[in-house]
Write a sequence for this structure.
């Protein structure tokens, strides 16, 4: 186990550490072992050894979730929890859950095959739990690595966005870039920017991150204090809704329902003169940004304020004329389509140069 411990302690290659852990489990229990990861439904098998059959590992993961703990099943083919596909691929099976941050992330499972295979014992299941504890460390390291990579990508996105806002030829392009970035860094289905006119108590949609499903959202004026966007402006604080239908009104509600968008998060952009805009995110599931994402959203709000301030200095209208078509992120032949392509390809072009 020392090699596994060293790999986990270094944290340099959690995937390799998990593969070594599976290999060691196979040798320890004289069977085929592996770790089935629920995220993505993939099997981490021994690097050079014989791994557990993927169908058996998947069935073991389902069983651990239902039983809320580890188990030993001797005479696996006759067990009710074994799928027809998995039943024929092992004689005896034992598995323990792998938990990270209080959530089931996978299982460490071992199987034995053949009529002469010895059944597993309670003592062996207790020993397998030690492997599961070490596997949870590897899973946590994978999470931290993924979070770091995601954070780096988000920071690169903000850097590109800063250059875009400062060089955009018009307010429309700047806000479109912000909407695209907001959807990217938060992973939401749709992001939009509504520009406020506080004296008239209204907000008008200026940019959406996608034409599909956003293409059928006409230029829409939101009344101050009504709907998700209007409430964020009136209250001057974020407004979130896991059941967005209870907050949305009129056309907004029907549009969200038509596209299966059940959650929303609207953030007011407040400048010295008052509320100047609202950034809204819409998703298919609950929107609960982590602390790092909240910092990114605050940065995006700052970019919106800077874009509006620059437009006013240049004498550009902050609100479009009523009835003017809205440009969204991917409508054929539109300038935002070219903008999105530039925005997406810019890092690769820079790397090639």
């Amino acid at each position: 186990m020392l090699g596994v411990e060293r790999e986990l302690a270094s944290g340099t290659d959690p995937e390799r550490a998990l593969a070594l852990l599976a290999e060691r489990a196979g040798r320890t229990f004289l069977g085929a072992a592996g770790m089935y990861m629920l995220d993505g439904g993939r099997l981490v098998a021994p690097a050079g050894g014989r791994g557990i059959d993927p169908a058996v590992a998947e069935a073991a993961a389902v069983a651990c979730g239902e039983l809320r703990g580890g188990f030993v099943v001797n005479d696996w083919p006759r067990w009710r929890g074994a799928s027809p596909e998995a039943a024929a691929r092992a004689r005896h099976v034992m598995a323990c859950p792998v938990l990270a941050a209080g959530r089931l992330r996978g299982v460490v499972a071992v199987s034995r095959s053949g009529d002469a295979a010895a059944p597993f014992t309670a003592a062996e299941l207790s020993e397998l739990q030690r492997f599961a504890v070490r596997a949870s460390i590897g899973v946590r390291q994978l999470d931290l690595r993924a979070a770091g990579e995601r954070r780096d990508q988000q920071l690169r996105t903000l850097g590109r966005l800063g250059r875009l806002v400062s060089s955009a030829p018009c307010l429309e392009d700047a806000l479109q870039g912000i909407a695209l970035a907001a959807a990217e860094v938060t992973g939401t289905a749709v992001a939009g920017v509504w520009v406020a006119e506080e004296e008239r108590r209204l907000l008008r949609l200026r940019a959406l991150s996608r034409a599909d499903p956003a293409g059928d959202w006409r230029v829409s004026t939101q009344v101050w204090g009504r709907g998700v966007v209007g409430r964020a402006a009136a209250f001057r604080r974020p407004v979130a809704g896991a059941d967005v239908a209870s907050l949305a009104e009129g056309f907004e509600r029907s549009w969200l329902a038509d596209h299966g968008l059940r959650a929303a998060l609207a953030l007011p952009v407040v400048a010295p003169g008052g509320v100047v805009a609202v950034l809204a995110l819409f998703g298919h599931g609950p929107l609960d940004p982590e602390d790092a994402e909240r910092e990114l959203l605050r940065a995006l709000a700052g970019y919106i304020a800077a874009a509006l301030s620059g437009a006013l200095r240049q004498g550009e209208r902050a609100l479009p004329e009523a009835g003017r078509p809205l440009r969204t992120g991917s409508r054929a032949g539109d300038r935002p389509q070219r903008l999105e392509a530039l925005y997406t390809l810019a890092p690769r072009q820079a790397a090639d140069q």
About this structure: The chain is about 45% helix and 20% strand.
